[in-house]
Amino acid sequence: MKDRLRKSLADATLYPFWLDNPAAPNTEPHLIGRQDADLLIVGGGFTGLWAAILAKQTEPNRDVILIEAGKVAHGASGRPGGIVSTSVMHGLSNAARIFPVDLDVLERLGKDNLDAWRQTIEAFGIDADLEWTGEMTVAIDKAGLAELDSEFSLAKQHGHDIVRLDSTSTRMELASPLFQGAIWSRKRSGTVHPAKLAWGLKRAALELGVRLFEHTPMTGVEDNQATLTVRTHDGLIRARRVLFATNAWAAGHPHIKRRVAAVRDRVLATEPLTAEQMERLGWKNRQGVYDTRTQLNYTRLTKDNRIIFGGRVGYYFNDNTDPEQDHKISTYEVLAGYFAQTFPQLQDVKFTHAWSGPIDLTMRLAVHFQRYYGGKGVYAGGYSGFGVTTTRFGARVGLDILDGKQSDDLNLDFARTLPGRIPPEPFRWIGAKLTMHALDEVDKKGGWRKQWINLVHKMGFPL
User: Fold this and answer.
1) Closest CA to 296 of 324, 272, 263
2) What DSSP assignment string belongs to 58-107?
3) pLDDT for 179
4) Average pLDDT, stretch 342-351?
């Protein structure tokens, strides 16, 4: 088995499939010298790009600068599975867990956000391989079936176009011996090419007049009472307001990391499947798919019929966002094994790309907003892996907070409160390593692993 897995990975490029694309745009110049701006956005991922676009759309004369430490989309935004969803709080069940009183409002906000997300993409003619095929959550055991029943009931209560599938119907949608049942949400969800989306948003921001600088890492922040001065490698920007869209990097203020941990998500891409291989899968409706493993896996098809298969998170000491281990092909063997268990009929399929990406994990598993420098700086992040569409929502709310707007939405708990604190190092690393080890086998072996996961739940992490 190990030899076969190694052979399937032997020719894989250790680089994100999404970013390995000739459509990638040229980079913008890096910042040299001094600049002034009404609004500075730090971070050129989805949150930063959406914030730049929204800021100019709502106030065209506002002078907006966006700086990115590397290239736009080369952080987390060019690395996810790219499954599109309405939820702005990491799914209905998580929203019900953290904000049960506000669930109706959060559902409305999520649907409105996704509709506006789509409208902007269409208005700017962004070609991001969007497929509105729905999202499907599949159970792989009896405990997962109970989860599906709960989620299905909740979704029906809130008006989702959702169907409950038994094992036979599920395998007719996607043939896997593991799948015991599923729920399929058929509207306002699907898949997207995340890098093409980010590159399209970059173009839109530039067209709107945003001043964008790449290869411009932030090196420090100074509070000058009326303004903030953000220093970069070769310059500085003085701005009245700063949005820190730094997500898993948690840059902008030393206290951000108290509530955000950077974990690593691993992803594989197969070679394009032949028509005969696609027939073995039966994946005619092309849904984005999540499973109910404690160590969750997700999968979807690309435009050219590759399978993207991700999951199996890891953590490295001191929130390392570029660990050496993730640049070794052996790191992806366990994930390739999960793929083989899920789709044993595809033993002849090889992987072309293997990569990892940073996730900004919090105890809330959902976006939150940290205010610093007397309100002149706001961190918007903590999407915990569900940021493809939620980032637009995070950007909008972050800007409203920075601008001092008053609204009923901003008085809700999601905008006013913070997730719990995460222990500092070395306790963060010790706890994470124990948890990741337990997650790998908890569904099969139980025992101390289950007890540990239950303890982690009680501490506030709903893994």
Assistant:
1) 263
2) H-TT--EEEE-SS-TTTTGGGSS--EE-S-SSSSHHHHHHH-GGGHHHHH
3) 97
4) 97
CA pair distance 440, 429, nearest whole angstrom: 17
State both tokens at 106. Answer: 């959060």
Q: For residues 235, 238, 244 and 250, what is the CA-based torsion angle, rounded to 10 degrees?
A: 50
State how far the Cα of 78 lies from the Cα of 72, in Å rounded to an integer. Answer: 8
Q: At what angle do helices 194-207 and 46-58 cross, to 10 degrees?
A: 30
As to burial, measured by CB atoms within 10 angstroms (0-12 exposed, 13-18 middle, 19+ buried), residue 184 is: buried
Cα of 124 vs its chain's centroid, Å? 23
288 forms bridges with which residues in the sheet?
135
Confidence at residue 461, expressed as pLDDT on a 0 to 100 scale:
66
Mean pLDDT over residues 300-323, rounded?
94
134: left (phi over 0), alpha (psi -120 to 50) or beta: left
Peptide bond before residue 424 is cis, with ω within 30 degrees of 0: no
Tokens of 344: 């044993």
Which ranges constitute the DSSP H helices of 261-318? Answer: 275-281
Q: How far is CA 277 from CA 178, 336, 346, 352, 421, in A?
A: 18, 18, 7, 16, 47
Contact 434, 452 (CB under 8 A): yes
Strands 135-139 vs 288-291: parallel, antiparallel or unpaired: parallel
pLDDT digits (tens, 9 = 90+) for 257-281: 999 999 999 999 999 999 999 999 9
Q: Name the residue among 354, 357, 365, 328 with its Cα closest to residue 265.
A: 357
Take residue 435 and report the two structure tokens written for it: 């948890």
- Cα 27 versus chain centre, distance: 23
Residues whose CB is less than 8 angstroms from the CB of residue 322 and which lie 6 or more positions away in sequence, other chains included: none
Q: Which pair of tokens denotes residue 30?
A: 């890096």
Who's near 402: CB < 8 A, 6+ residues apart? 39, 241, 242, 243, 375, 376, 378
Among the residues of 403-447, which ranges form H helices? Answer: 413-416, 427-445
Least reliable range by pLDDT among 55-64, 313-322, 394-403 = 313-322
- DSSP strands (E only) in 140-234: 162-165, 181-185, 190-191, 211-213, 218-223, 228-232
At 138, is the secondary structure helix, strand, or coil?
strand
Distance separating alpha carbons of residues 432 and 426, to the nearest angstrom: 10
Q: Which 8-state DSSP code applies to residue 418?
A: -
